[in-house]
Amino acid sequence: MSKISISHEARKLGIFIAYTEVTSIIVRETDNGLEEEMKKIEEKYKGIDIDSLKDDPVVRAYRDFYWKIKIDPTKTRPSGEALRRRIARNGKLPRINNVVDIGNLVSADTMVPIGIYDTARFKYPLVLRLSEGNETFLGIGKKEPEKLDKDIPILVDDEGKVMHIYPHRDSQLTNVINTTENVLIVSAGVMGVPEELVRNATTRVAELLVKYACGKWNGEVTIL
């Protein structure tokens, strides 16, 4: 059985993903090597014309998807675009820890939304499906769970835990914490975004986790 599946209804929205696992990572503060990588990305996009982002075909594809799922992308930005805008405005990406920072770095550069999940905190198999309207979700930084409306794309584990609202919000029930050792990387694709871009984003996160978090990776990425 596949570790992850996508429901027919979610597929009809144009959803696809790339995923892989990296094991034996060490979560710590961002070190000098990774700091240099982050500064390169910050320098690359610092001071760009924010208004021109709307004309980028990747940004356009994610925004179109947001409209399709009834989210206004001018109010709730796709995560990659939000990170790019943050750099353009103040020249800095957030610093959380080496693992989260790697995901943000790659997402800012590719504008592909990327989720990194602690495999000890969820149970396979996972399914990416539309919500039924009876699920709850505890977003990162939130004190109380929220009840989800119907027909929202969500990633759910075998115990019914909502790990992610596709493609922009992760749960604090399954996010990376200080004791995380093994992670699942999921990059979110939508219609109009090149499959190769989503695959490459996943690969780059895995490679950086090997380099800056002492991770082990078999070099395989699955497109679903």
Can you characterise this structure?
By secondary structure, the protein is an alpha+beta fold. It is 33% helix and 19% strand. The chain contains six helices and eleven strands. It has helices at 8-12, 32-45, 57-68, 79-90, 98-110, 195-213, and strands spanning 4-6, 16-22, 114-118, 126-130, 136-137, 146-147, 153-156, 162-165, 169-170, 183-189, 222-223. The strands form three sheets. Strands 1-4-7-8-9 form a five-stranded mixed β-sheet. A four-stranded antiparallel β-sheet has the order 3-10-2-11, covered by helices on one side. Helix 5 (98-110) runs antiparallel to helix 6. 38% of the residues are buried. The model has no long low-confidence stretch (mean pLDDT 93).
Task: Assign a percent range to the helix content.
Answer: 25-40%
Structural class: alpha+beta
Order of helices and strands: EHEHHHHEEEEEEEEHE
**Strand order in the largest sheet:** 1-4-7-8-9
Low-confidence stretches: none
What fraction of residues sit in β-strands?
Answer: 15-25%
Mean pLDDT: 93
How many DSSP helices? 6
Shape: globular
E-strand count: 11
Helix and strand arrangement:
Blueprint: E1 4-6, H1 8-12, E2 16-22, H2 32-45, H3 57-68, H4 79-90, H5 98-110, E3 114-118, E4 126-130, E5 136-137, E6 146-147, E7 153-156, E8 162-165, E9 169-170, E10 183-189, H6 195-213, E11 222-223
Parallel strand pairs: 1-4
Antiparallel strand pairs: 2-10, 2-11, 3-10, 4-7, 5-6, 7-8, 8-9
